[in-house]
Amino acid sequence: MDELKSVNLSKFVSEAVSYICEAKLRSADIQAAVQVCSLLHQRYKDFSPCLIQGLLKVFVPGKSGDDLDTDKNSRAMKKRSTLKLLIELYFVGIVEDASIFVNIIKDLTSLEHLKDREATQTNLSLLSSFVRQGRLFIGLRSHGHESYDEFFKDLNVTADQKKFFKKALNSYYDAVSELLQSENASLRLMEAENAKVLSAKGELSDENTASYEKLRKSFDQLLRGVSSLAEAIDLQPPVMPDDGNTTRVTTGTDVTPSSGKEPSVLEPIWDDDDTKTFYESLPDLRAFVPAVLLGEAEQKLNEQHAKGREQSSVRF
After folding, report:
1. H-type alpha helices, 202-272
2. Hey, how many other C-beta atoms are within 10 angstroms of the C-beta on 185?
3. CA–CA separation, 283 and 297 (whole Å)
4. What are the Cα distances from residue 229, in Å, to 116, 123, 160, 236?
5. pTM score
6. Pick from 53, 43, 61, 42: which is nearest to 17 by CA?
7. Which of 228, 214, 229, 195 has the alpha carbon at shortest distance from 260?
């Protein structure tokens, strides 16, 4: 940071912009990136316009060749970190116009994306993250951080922009909730059909099993995404109708709605080995607590007295 303040980088502004735009930032890196951007913003007037333009390229629709799962996953992660960075840059005044978020949200809430399930999952995650980080954009108060509301009052988000964000998010939530209801109906229909097959033949074919697992996993992921968005915009999460006529069909590699993963693949309950050791390797309290507090001192004294009486009786 000290070098950024002292070294003349006027000839390398474009390189600095490219490096920041291409960096794979984690959530923990965002604040450090904001500090770097803030220093460069203060020293070089052409830095911020180039940076914003470069960051917004992340949200341009991908090329038709971007079909690999690794490409899709990396693009989704890049969008998430870039959106977080842009919001933080807006909070510190480097991004001055909130209209850039209007264009981003307009694309993310486009109903055309609902035809692509992976795009829907990504957009739900991005929208939930956007609302949690920038509740002021839709006029929501910050839970437990009332002081933030005073700070946000000075940010230039117009009433029309807040109205747009709120309407776009609510309309998208309604549409994706309808999609969830439709997928739930398809899932329950498949479960009813599978139950009939199980009753008649005792087992499902590999094809039926694979189809069911795919649909159920898709439904579970969509349910989590919709519920997360509902929580972010202060709405009640969707409740799926239950007619009591069908039940979840187990296939041997059952997927639970809560995790979306096979029970055979257990997630570790400890974050790291140190945490595991802390909870599982319990110390011997007698090495740290005085014996009198554990009642051991009195017990030893009684044993000594009893031993003394026994020795006395032997002498007599």
Report:
1. 206-232
2. 12
3. 20
4. 18, 10, 22, 10
5. 0.71
6. 53
7. 214
Q: DSSP for 132-143, please give it.
A: HH-GGGGTPPPT
Q: What's the half-sphere exposure (Cβ side, CA atoms, 13 Å) at 84?
A: 21
Q: How far apart are CA 91 and CA 155, in angstroms?
A: 7
Task: Check if the beta carbon of residue 16 is closer than 8 Å to that of residue 40.
Answer: yes
The residue type at 83: L
Report yes or no: 30 and 81 within 8 Å, Cβ to Cβ. Answer: yes
Placement of tokens 């709120």 in the chain? 166
Cβ neighbours of residue 128 under 8 Å, at least 6 residues apart?
225, 228, 229, 231, 232
What is the distance between the alpha carbons of residues 116 and 108, in angstroms, rounded to a whole number? 12
Tokens of 102: 């209007």
Name the average pLDDT for the chain.
79
The answer to whether residues 100 and 86 touch, using CB atoms and an 8 Å cutoff, is: yes
On the 0-12 / 13-18 / 19+ scale of CB atoms within 10 A, 58 is: middle
Q: Is 135 exposed, middle or buried (0-12, 13-18, 19+ CB in 10 A)?
A: buried
What CATH architecture does domain 124-267 belong to?
Answer: Alpha Horseshoe (1.25)
The pLDDT confidence band at residue 312, using thresholds 50, 70 and 90, is: low
Task: Give the residue with greater pLDDT, 247 vs 201.
Answer: 201
The full set of domain ranges for the chain reads 1-96, 124-267, 273-315
Which ranges of the chain would DSSP assign to H, the alpha helix? 2-6, 13-22, 30-43, 47-56, 69-91, 99-108, 117-133, 146-152, 159-201, 206-232, 273-280, 291-294, 296-315
